[in-house]
Amino acid sequence: MSPERLLILGGTAEAAALAQGAVARFGDRLHVTTSLAGRTERPGPIPGEIRIGGFGGTSGLAAYLTECGIDRLIDATHPFAARISAAARLACEVAGVPRLMVVRPPWRRHPMDRWIEVGDMAAAAATVGRVGRRAWLTVGASEIGRFSAVTGVHFLVRLIDPPRRGVPLRSYRLVVGRGPFGLAEERRLFARHAIDVLVCKASGGAATEAKIVAARELGLPVVMVQRPRMEPGEAVDSVAKALEWLARADLFDEAKRVS
Question: Can you give the residue range of the structural domain that contains 10?
Answer without folding.
Answer: 4-105+229-256
